[in-house]
Amino acid sequence: MRIPLVAGNWKMNKTVEEARKLTSEMVQRLGQIKGVERVLCPPFPSLLAAAALLQGSQIGLGAQNMHWEEKGAFTGEVSPLMVAEFCKYVIIGHSERRTYFGETDATVNKKIAAARTRGLIPILCVGETLAEYEAGQTASVVARQMREGLKGLDADFATKLVVAYEPVWAIGTGRASSGENANAVVQEVIRKALTELFTWEVAQAIRVLYGGSVTASNAAEFFSQPGIDGALVGGASLKVDEFTAIARSAVK
Question: Mind telling me the catalytic residues?
């Protein structure tokens, strides 16, 4: 049985002091919820502060990105070694990284491999743009991102992987996909790709989240779908009441 997971991607929000306050409030509220894994992903400067506050709780910590090299002349980057000091999870291949910072399927694959080496669990983000969606290219785009992003990965590590289906046209727009449509992509494209890459058993063991304008009011629509195991939440993860309500909705 796949344990539901709800991860909050804070993106480029909250100073360290603001992050301390928000994390403290999240610990109090999320700590009461059982049956769902909860993960917070603050910006890099706040990871140390958040890690200290999450110590002893059942709430996980994740980074929003990382480089694939462990050290070197990569000004402004953060290595897997640095992330692994504090985090269990790392978001890789988010559409904003792909759109604004030149992330490709090839660099995503390098980061996935680096995460494996350092014992980090990747949350691999895949999803199509509005133009690709309207052109009927969702299946081909998402299947390619899965295939190229996970190339060379072994089945044992793959079972620990988390995949987040995030249609780009739904992220931060208030225009979420429908639960039925998201579930169809998860079952017919993502799990099919995982089966081809590994085995049917591995594909069924991997948790697949939905992301893209998830709110407390629409979360249950996605969590009621058989193929969706939680959510990667953006803006709503900055609001304690909203994120707590989403986490409660994920309990099956």
Answer: 94, 166
